[in-house]
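quick q for whoever's on today - can somebody do inverse folding on this one?? i tried earlier but teh output was garbage lol. tokens:
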């Protein structure tokens, strides 16, 4: 959005760690009006180092969820780590706070920076309201800006993507991108590969490729979205490990089992070491556990029929995209 109005530099792909952000800084050419950096973390102090390197004038935290607990300890560790981004934003700068996140607003107060809130459920300066679900075609919605609003639509699927859209649109509007241009940009944007991207397979079923990564929150969002989307046939979930959860791995994998047990998903295929806890929670009547991908793929090929919808998701280390490719 900003790139259609200003000279913008941004980090490519998922270059959001120390090495990736450093490469992005060194690759700056000319004199961009804005530099947009995604900062990631999987260990304590990483956000602080990245924020000191980039010295943001504006910053936004998407949400606080149980990810990378192996390096961050617990949800409190995730919160404290991410709040460093706000703390290290330049004084007099601007921060954007997710008003629907239960952790950030109660904990973070700031009198040295301008604070804008954004949200879908709660009152906020920037809001998004859903006008109509368009099924597999996406969502029609309205963006409410301070003193302005715009009706638009997106082909992206899932409520989690609506939060991403709202976050990006809030910053774009705040830096001077007109509402009409935001509308056009959102309508033209399509999802990246391996991020809840649906496509039709030769067998007549739909595969939802969400194989890029997985944590407890993103898996829950993916399952909810799978159940909300129309399906002429049965819904199938193929799930791999959720990595980097540390001592909480067993708990969150069992919690996933409880979520799946309450769902109407008819076929659940699991693969991985840590996800064995999910299988123990579900039992063999609701799920099948596989030791290798070839057997899982053969099983799914025998089960999948025209009209079915198949979700494939797991952590990056699980390489779940190999299953996606085999099922095409």
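ok took a stab at it. sequence:
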């Amino acid at each position: 959005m900003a790139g259609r109005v200003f000279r913008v530099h941004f980090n490519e792909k998922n270059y959001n760690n120390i090495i990736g952000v450093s490469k992005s800084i060194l690759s700056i050419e000319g004199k961009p009006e804005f530099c947009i950096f995604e900062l990631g973390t999987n260990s304590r102090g990483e956000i602080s180092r990245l924020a000191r390197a980039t010295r943001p004038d504006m910053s936004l935290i998407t949400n606080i969820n149980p990810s990378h607990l192996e390096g961050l300890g617990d949800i409190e560790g995730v919160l404290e780590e991410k709040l460093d981004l706000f703390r290290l934003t330049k004084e007099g700068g601007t921060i954007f706070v997710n008003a629907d996140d239960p952790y950030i607003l109660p904990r973070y107060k700031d009198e040295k920076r301008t604070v804008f809130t954004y949200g879908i459920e709660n009152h906020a300066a920037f809001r998004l309201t859903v006008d109509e679900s368009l099924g597999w075609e996406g969502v029609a919605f309205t963006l409410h800006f301070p003193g302005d609003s715009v009706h638009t639509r997106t082909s992206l699927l899932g409520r989690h993507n609506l939060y991403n859209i709202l976050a990006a649109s809030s910053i774009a509007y705040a830096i001077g991108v007109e509402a009409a241009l935001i509308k056009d940009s959102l309508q033209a944007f399509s999802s990246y590969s391996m991020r809840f991207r649906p496509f039709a397979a030769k067998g007549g079923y739909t595969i939802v490729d969400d194989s890029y990564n997985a944590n407890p929150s993103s898996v829950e969002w993916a399952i909810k979205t799978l159940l909300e989307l129309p399906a002429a046939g049965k819904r199938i979930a193929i799930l791999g490990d959720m990595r980097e959860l540390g001592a909480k791995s067993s708990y969150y994998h069992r919690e996933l089992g409880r979520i799946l047990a309450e769902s109407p998903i008819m076929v659940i295929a699991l693969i991985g070491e840590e996800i064995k806890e999910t299988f123990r929670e579900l039992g063999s009547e609701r799920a099948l556990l596989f030791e290798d991908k070839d057997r899982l793929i053969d099983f799914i090929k025998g089960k999948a029929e025209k009209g079915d919808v198949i979700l494939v998701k797991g952590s990056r280390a699980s390489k779940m995209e190999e299953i996606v490719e085999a099922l095409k």
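fwiw The chain has a mean pLDDT of 96. also The chain is about 35% helix and 20% strand. so keep that in mind when u check it
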